[in-house]
């Protein structure tokens, strides 16, 4: 029979307090020695320890504690509830000796286990809130979610265009290291410091960080550590903010930098002048530039007391004397070469001193403006520009402080507006346009950069009707502004679309720059492109989120507005790829397909009128009348097919129709071609049709290839007609050599990294001389009888050509071909001959990923086509990327194997290595 717990405890207690008879007789007379007391205590504790050790480890862990035993269950938890508040939670001092680590580690293990989310212990969930209250800055190690994520933040800060992500991570809302690496020109280290300086300016400018507090914090963290190797780079970052804000802020806000200087630059050191032929020399001079700005501020009267002279003196430190003397001597030399970084040093040091700043900045602007007298030709007829062709190199622009860059871009924008007001017949110098494009990528100067471009420069140029400069700005947007933030892009596109509707902009070249804008009131192709983009974006988003993101009212409003502007329908093979809500919308808003037979009938009727009318003015008036059916390109086709020539009247009608209305004629012509090719009999007739169509593009210059292909690719033909449409596209692109030769030579002779090139204009002109583009029907004017002498005034072309204009159209063509299984082989052929163009795509991997994801169902069983698509895009970049930059060696070896009899099936080892590669790349940034 088990002895009750009370009896056992009573027995232990009695043994401890038991006394002898003599002690009881002489109570109070006997006293135990300390040794006796210690002996009793040890005996008592030993007895209790032995007793508790014989019991189950915990009440809750007892085998007999089961919920069916009602009384035991209730009494046990009541007992726990009664004693739990009296538990003595031991506390540990904040500062303890390392000798007690042995005691701390077991306690830490217990606490970590209690708070371990994988252990699923309720105290973990209850304790997190209290821990975060006690340690708001994450001073206590607990769940990863609440630990200081400095590694992650550092990784995100290193990424280009990461500013908004950092703001989200830190919960910020704005109103609208020691290194052994010797960086070289464009080196990774230099780029990281430049990026860091951009981030600093943003966070301090919007008061998310305090500059004095940050500098003092740096001083505190660096004190006593002897870290000086990265000091020049650190001072370069601080110079960025100081030079641009010291005129507006109090001097006291910047004086902590001198305290940091005293720590990092020993007093006895005298820093030698570095090699100014290297860009890193601007970092070496950063502290000297800071001192010059601080000293000038110290000598400037306070605006509140302008008559009072400043008594504050900041003597030149001994370590900076050689640097300062070099800058002073350079100022006295009025001839500043562009072969070194002396101009950048002077701009950085004296950007707040107009008397000294004028000289170096003047050299920069004169270099890119041209001398005002010499002229060079641009592509096209009668187009001349100022003669400067070599832009300021990126290394030089990177070496300028933000303040100096803002002065330069302000000077450029001011000059462009001035020339627009003056309606100058001389185009901007290529060097100026390229340099301006390069400056627009710097996020730290966006107020004068892209924001000024959209809100000030563009409206002023348009108001002055300076179409040449407007075309230049559109070219910059199309071919140079690859990485502007989305909201700026949308704002610019919307603005341009409103400008495009103005009658004065009815100009061929301007309409070739027609942007892929948000919504168009008249361009069906642009609205279709938006819907296709919306379909792909929602497909990918819904895949990862598991929701129907397109169900919102905003999307339906956009679709309905598009249908009101440009009613249209979609081919079934295209519609089947759309997300379900988009499919449902277009099924509910079906637009009847115009009869191809009726189109053919109307063309025949108009052609009879053309042949029967005799009065030239009546003919021109009738066929160019606004609001009449857009059939004239179909008539020109029939003229060439039947008579092999077009007369002068045809040319004059084209001129009268105008660039804007001609777009609708191309769209109708695309439908008419498909009907004609579908009903033509015999290979000989087909060959003649292709020859005439090719002549309309390359011989007569009636329609550009990119515009015609875009309209063909965007039509909604079904079945056999769809295959014929894609057949026409393939023949136009590949059968004649005209376009293939242009693509081959352009890919071979040019590189995509235009920002690293100084001779872009030379190659640009060489290409246009070899393959001149005629955009004003010059070929037709030469072929009519008698020939017409044309001298059209071309707008300046700085970057574009038919190959680059075709590239976004090629994106669409590939997608259309993927939707129709019977034309797979044709697409493979197109990729073989034209895939090299993806060398110049601004986001080739993103495009490839989106394509493979969106068309996964169509590509699932078409291994060759999928491989061909990956190979075409990736191989186009092989000369401009390091090996293994995108695809693993295993995939390149086995995944690109074209042999169908040995299809590669990845095993678990491949996927393990792939995940390992991902983990390694993440860890190398985070740790």
TrEMBL record:
Pfam families per UniProt = Med23
- Record GO biological process: positive regulation of gene expression; regulation of transcription by RNA polymerase II
User: What keywords sit in the KW lines?
Assistant: Nucleus, Transcription, Transcription regulation
Query: InterPro entries, from UniProt?
Result: Mediator_Med23
Report the locations given in the UniProt record.
Answer: Nucleus
Q: Which PANTHER family match?
A: MEDIATOR OF RNA POLYMERASE II TRANSCRIPTION SUBUNIT 23 (PTHR12691)
Q: Which family does it belong to?
A: Belongs to the Mediator complex subunit 23 family.
The protein, known as: Mediator of RNA polymerase II transcription subunit 23
